Amino acid sequence: MSGTTELHLGDLGERGIQEHVLRPRYGDTEGFGDDSAFLATVTTPSELVATTDSCPTPVVNLLGEPDLYHAGWLLATINLSDLAAAGAEPLGLVVNYTLPKATTVGEFERLLDGVDDCCAEHGTKVVGGDLRDGAATQLTATAVGSCVPGSRLRRSGARAGDRLLLTGSPGYLWAAALLATGRATLPASERDDIWQRACRPMAQLKAGKVLAANGLARAAMDVSDGLFATVRTLGEANGLGAAVTGEFDLDEPLARVCAQAGLRPFDLAQTWGDWGLVVAVRAEDVGLATKMLREEGVAVQEIGTLTADAGLTAGTAPWRGIAQERFSANSWHGGELSTLVPEVLSVPA
Amino acid sequence: MSGTTELHLGDLGERGIQEHVLRPRYGDTEGFGDDSAFLATVTTPSELVATTDSCPTPVVNLLGEPDLYHAGWLLATINLSDLAAAGAEPLGLVVNYTLPKATTVGEFERLLDGVDDCCAEHGTKVVGGDLRDGAATQLTATAVGSCVPGSRLRRSGARAGDRLLLTGSPGYLWAAALLATGRATLPASERDDIWQRACRPMAQLKAGKVLAANGLARAAMDVSDGLFATVRTLGEANGLGAAVTGEFDLDEPLARVCAQAGLRPFDLAQTWGDWGLVVAVRAEDVGLATKMLREEGVAVQEIGTLTADAGLTAGTAPWRGIAQERFSANSWHGGELSTLVPEVLSVPA
């Protein structure tokens, strides 16, 4: 809609937004404008799953400019990542946005671009949604997916002795934070690459699907609130503890960022924002799982073992990791940048 | 969780809420605690639909006490009503709650009771969700449903000459408002009954299913923003106008409320909050559709005709009805009671 990017949503009104912003973008989607969105026609027996998550303020927005594109991308990633942890194939996303009337059409389009681009990267799309005005921006989505019956991955089902694999490449988001706050320095091209990856985290749908289809995962969970919280919860769901090695392979530029900032790779690897999966795999399946994932282009590393002893250890010491928790005084959602980086990575303020 | 109803959610923290409130209630739900909720196993070919809506402050909360039960019930109704308009069978609801840390466990339990009770009344349930803390309460849900392939109802598909049916009994919510604000008086038992129905609106799932299964509806839409907005939008979706008779059958006590308040039944029938469906039906199918709906216990009345002429008429005059619209200056979402009733019903303040 040319010439309208500076208009406010409150200038257009609900019907104007529908006609001038949403219809040009989504009008060809089957069921556009209907009370219920059309997700898919399912013709083979399927286990259906759904997940819903809201989007916090992206850390990259705290580090850089307030571009709603990043929130849109993150909103889709967060929800698709939960489907990945189930080994599900996405059928579509429904979105639910609360936005101030003063939001410009241009800002709104950036939000929609971020969600749509991320969905397209994962081979899915927004099928419908809801929009209302409110004092504060709130972005929520629900992803629906399907699994082959019997293959759905859950948090439970692991046994003591199962190995823990981490899929994906950890550390990009907080390496970008170290770079953006001057705690490390890299040549511009490497720095730009890290920034791009921090802005465009990918849900591990391919990893989840490969593991589910081949019966190689006994339990899985995505790293949404930090590696420590994930491993702890995965252990608790199975009445187990975990021993992680504390040794992590980081992509090479990230290892240099760590060294400059005086951090171990473990410090960077146990943050969040990269949307890896932690997967429990029988010891004898580790080789096959690793091979199959790498053949699909998925980064994977073994990080530890589930143990009959409760409690978490890293190397030879107890693991007292960091975790985001909601409804608590020390939640980091919406924290200030000046305290966030030091708190998350235990580096000087 | 006895003895904890006065605790605040911020006292329990995310993990405490999970263990002490959510697990006792939902722990037996398959997939409880997993990243993705389990919706259903689909074994026959199905068209899947999804809808998402947030819940405004219920009018009954403005009229009475601030009980989150009503918001919970309404949240489920709003979403299930969209499935009804598609003629879909609900597979389950995922919920997304933002609540202040100061919310008490008792208040939270009332919210969950309202959602769960409404779902149970409609033969479905909450399968999963997300919870986070925030400055203001925001309640969102997504309902997923399935349709027999080819039977899904949409807003489009109607023709000029199709008759408009309204399912459900209109007027309960705003009759309750007239009673609560002293604009009408009824014996206590009738008044209580109207109040109960205003607090517990039912989505028209049975109506949608009967019409879809028998191919009797050419288009359908639920009355979420008032009858005027619904008929106007249904007409626009088909490039048509509509002529409504302006004559409505109200349940008998509501007719007395109207008379006392100096209103026509039409004034009360064109409000919202009762979650009826407006359905376009071929003229020759009106008798059969009406008969089949009544056999299922669904109230239904013919209210008008879709017309080739654009524009809306009520009786012999243009219909200038009332409509809620978001992102506009005159939206009634969150309005004050002192102005809401006069504005919606055009009665003296």
From TrEMBL, chains A, B:
<keyword id="KW-0067">ATP-binding</keyword>
<feature type="binding site">
    <location>
        <position position="82"/>
    </location>
    <ligand>
        <name>Mg(2+) 3</name>
    </ligand>
</feature>
<feature type="binding site">
    <location>
        <position position="52"/>
    </location>
    <ligand>
        <name>Mg(2+) 1</name>
    </ligand>
</feature>
<dbReference type="Pfam" id="PF02769">
    <property type="entry name" value="AIRS_C"/>
</dbReference>
<dbReference type="GO" id="GO:0009030">
    <property type="term" value="F:thiamine-phosphate kinase activity"/>
</dbReference>
<feature type="binding site">
    <location>
        <position position="53"/>
    </location>
    <ligand>
        <name>Mg(2+) 2</name>
    </ligand>
</feature>
<dbReference type="GO" id="GO:0005524">
    <property type="term" value="F:ATP binding"/>
</dbReference>
<feature type="binding site">
    <location>
        <position position="53"/>
    </location>
    <ligand>
        <name>Mg(2+) 1</name>
    </ligand>
</feature>
<keyword id="KW-0418">Kinase</keyword>
<feature type="binding site">
    <location>
        <position position="130"/>
    </location>
    <ligand>
        <name>Mg(2+) 1</name>
    </ligand>
</feature>
<keyword id="KW-0808">Transferase</keyword>
<feature type="binding site">
    <location>
        <position position="224"/>
    </location>
    <ligand>
        <name>ATP</name>
    </ligand>
</feature>
<feature type="binding site">
    <location>
        <position position="82"/>
    </location>
    <ligand>
        <name>Mg(2+) 2</name>
    </ligand>
</feature>
<comment type="similarity">
    <text>Belongs to the thiamine-monophosphate kinase family.</text>
</comment>
<feature type="binding site">
    <location>
        <position position="82"/>
    </location>
    <ligand>
        <name>Mg(2+) 4</name>
    </ligand>
</feature>
<keyword id="KW-0784">Thiamine biosynthesis</keyword>
<feature type="binding site">
    <location>
        <position position="222"/>
    </location>
    <ligand>
        <name>Mg(2+) 3</name>
    </ligand>
</feature>
<comment type="function">
    <text>Catalyzes the ATP-dependent phosphorylation of thiamine-monophosphate (TMP) to form thiamine-pyrophosphate (TPP), the active form of vitamin B1.</text>
</comment>
<dbReference type="InterPro" id="IPR016188">
    <property type="entry name" value="PurM-like_N"/>
</dbReference>
<dbReference type="InterPro" id="IPR036921">
    <property type="entry name" value="PurM-like_N_sf"/>
</dbReference>
<dbReference type="GO" id="GO:0000287">
    <property type="term" value="F:magnesium ion binding"/>
</dbReference>
<feature type="binding site">
    <location>
        <begin position="129"/>
        <end position="130"/>
    </location>
    <ligand>
        <name>ATP</name>
    </ligand>
</feature>
<dbReference type="Pfam" id="PF00586">
    <property type="entry name" value="AIRS"/>
</dbReference>
<feature type="binding site">
    <location>
        <position position="225"/>
    </location>
    <ligand>
        <name>Mg(2+) 5</name>
    </ligand>
</feature>
<keyword id="KW-0547">Nucleotide-binding</keyword>
<dbReference type="GO" id="GO:0009228">
    <property type="term" value="P:thiamine biosynthetic process"/>
</dbReference>
<dbReference type="InterPro" id="IPR006283">
    <property type="entry name" value="ThiL-like"/>
</dbReference>
<dbReference type="GO" id="GO:0009229">
    <property type="term" value="P:thiamine diphosphate biosynthetic process"/>
</dbReference>
<feature type="binding site">
    <location>
        <position position="35"/>
    </location>
    <ligand>
        <name>Mg(2+) 3</name>
    </ligand>
</feature>
<feature type="domain" description="PurM-like N-terminal">
    <location>
        <begin position="33"/>
        <end position="145"/>
    </location>
</feature>
<feature type="binding site">
    <location>
        <position position="35"/>
    </location>
    <ligand>
        <name>Mg(2+) 4</name>
    </ligand>
</feature>
<protein>
    <recommendedName>
        <fullName>Thiamine-monophosphate kinase</fullName>
        <ecNumber>2.7.4.16</ecNumber>
    </recommendedName>
</protein>
<dbReference type="InterPro" id="IPR036676">
    <property type="entry name" value="PurM-like_C_sf"/>
</dbReference>
<keyword id="KW-0460">Magnesium</keyword>
<comment type="pathway">
    <text>Cofactor biosynthesis; thiamine diphosphate biosynthesis; thiamine diphosphate from thiamine phosphate: step 1/1.</text>
</comment>
<feature type="domain" description="PurM-like C-terminal">
    <location>
        <begin position="159"/>
        <end position="313"/>
    </location>
</feature>
<dbReference type="InterPro" id="IPR010918">
    <property type="entry name" value="PurM-like_C_dom"/>
</dbReference>
<feature type="binding site">
    <location>
        <position position="155"/>
    </location>
    <ligand>
        <name>ATP</name>
    </ligand>
</feature>
<feature type="binding site">
    <location>
        <position position="51"/>
    </location>
    <ligand>
        <name>Mg(2+) 4</name>
    </ligand>
</feature>
<keyword id="KW-0479">Metal-binding</keyword>
